[in-house]
Protein backbone atom coordinates (compact mmCIF):
# COMPACT_ATOMS: atom_id res chain seq x y z
CA UNK A 1 0.00 0.00 0.00
CA UNK A 2 1.31 3.42 -0.92
CA UNK A 3 1.88 6.22 1.56
CA UNK A 4 -0.55 8.30 -0.51
CA UNK A 5 -3.27 5.74 0.12
CA UNK A 6 -2.53 5.72 3.84
CA UNK A 7 -2.70 9.52 3.86
CA UNK A 8 -6.03 9.41 2.02
CA UNK A 9 -7.38 6.96 4.58
CA UNK A 10 -6.12 9.00 7.53
CA UNK A 11 -7.59 12.12 5.91
CA UNK A 12 -10.98 10.39 5.68
CA UNK A 13 -10.68 9.32 9.32
CA UNK A 14 -10.13 12.93 10.35
CA UNK A 15 -13.81 13.44 9.45
CA UNK A 16 -14.79 11.02 12.22
CA UNK A 17 -15.31 12.99 15.42
CA UNK A 18 -15.51 11.50 18.91
CA UNK A 19 -18.95 12.81 19.98
CA UNK A 20 -17.95 13.01 23.64
CA UNK A 21 -14.80 15.06 23.09
CA UNK A 22 -15.68 16.87 19.87
CA UNK A 23 -12.27 16.18 18.31
CA UNK A 24 -11.56 13.77 15.45
CA UNK A 25 -10.23 10.28 16.17
CA UNK A 26 -6.92 10.89 14.33
CA UNK A 27 -5.95 13.94 16.40
CA UNK A 28 -7.08 12.14 19.55
CA UNK A 29 -4.54 9.44 18.71
CA UNK A 30 -7.18 6.69 18.67
CA UNK A 31 -6.12 5.31 15.27
CA UNK A 32 -3.08 3.06 15.61
CA UNK A 33 -2.92 1.78 12.04
CA UNK A 34 -4.70 1.96 8.69
CA UNK A 35 -4.05 -0.62 5.97
CA UNK A 36 -5.59 -1.57 2.66
CA UNK A 37 -5.24 -5.13 1.38
CA UNK A 38 -5.16 -6.26 -2.27
CA UNK A 39 -8.91 -6.87 -2.35
CA UNK A 40 -9.60 -3.29 -1.30
CA UNK A 41 -10.41 -4.09 2.31
CA UNK A 42 -9.47 -1.30 4.68
CA UNK A 43 -8.25 -2.59 8.03
CA UNK A 44 -8.29 -0.01 10.79
CA UNK A 45 -6.66 -0.74 14.13
CA UNK A 46 -7.83 1.67 16.77
CA UNK A 47 -8.83 2.09 20.38
CA UNK A 48 -11.46 4.12 22.23
CA UNK A 49 -10.94 6.63 25.03
CA UNK A 50 -12.53 4.21 27.50
CA UNK A 51 -13.61 0.58 27.49
CA UNK A 52 -17.20 1.48 28.27
CA UNK A 53 -17.34 4.15 25.58
CA UNK A 54 -21.00 4.14 24.52
CA UNK A 55 -20.08 5.87 21.26
CA UNK A 56 -17.97 2.93 20.02
CA UNK A 57 -20.56 1.53 17.57
CA UNK A 58 -21.36 5.03 16.27
CA UNK A 59 -17.66 5.80 15.73
CA UNK A 60 -17.17 2.47 13.90
CA UNK A 61 -20.21 3.20 11.67
CA UNK A 62 -18.82 6.66 10.88
CA UNK A 63 -15.40 5.18 10.03
CA UNK A 64 -17.00 2.76 7.57
CA UNK A 65 -19.08 5.53 6.01
CA UNK A 66 -16.06 7.83 5.52
CA UNK A 67 -13.71 5.15 4.16
CA UNK A 68 -16.28 3.72 1.74
CA UNK A 69 -16.21 7.10 -0.02
CA UNK A 70 -12.65 6.38 -1.18
CA UNK A 71 -12.84 4.66 -4.59
CA UNK A 72 -10.11 2.16 -3.64
CA UNK A 73 -11.98 0.94 -0.55
CA UNK A 74 -14.43 -1.93 -1.13
CA UNK A 75 -14.86 -3.09 2.47
CA UNK A 76 -13.90 -1.88 5.95
CA UNK A 77 -12.85 -3.87 8.99
CA UNK A 78 -12.38 -2.00 12.27
CA UNK A 79 -10.36 -3.76 14.96
CA UNK A 80 -10.75 -2.18 18.38
CA UNK A 81 -7.81 -3.00 20.63
CA UNK A 82 -7.14 -2.09 24.26
CA UNK A 83 -3.40 -2.57 24.09
CA UNK A 84 -1.59 -0.22 24.11
CA UNK A 85 -4.19 1.62 26.18
CA UNK A 86 -5.09 5.12 25.06
CA UNK A 87 -3.79 8.02 27.08
CA UNK A 88 -3.81 11.78 26.72
CA UNK A 89 -0.20 11.52 25.54
CA UNK A 90 -1.51 10.07 22.25
CA UNK A 91 -3.28 13.31 21.39
CA UNK A 92 -1.88 15.74 18.85
CA UNK A 93 -0.99 19.27 19.92
CA UNK A 94 -4.16 20.41 18.16
CA UNK A 95 -6.36 18.03 20.20
CA UNK A 96 -4.69 19.07 23.47
CA UNK A 97 -5.25 22.73 22.68
CA UNK A 98 -8.87 22.10 21.65
CA UNK A 99 -9.54 20.27 24.91
CA UNK A 100 -7.44 22.57 27.10
CA UNK A 101 -5.12 19.73 28.12
CA UNK A 102 -1.52 20.56 29.00
Automatic annotation (TrEMBL):
Residues 9-79 form the MIP18 family-like domain. Gene3D superfamilies: Fe-S cluster assembly (FSCA). InterPro entries: Fe-S_Maturation_MIP18, FSCA_dom_sf, MIP18-like. This is Metal-sulfur cluster assembly factor. It comes from Sporosarcina soli.
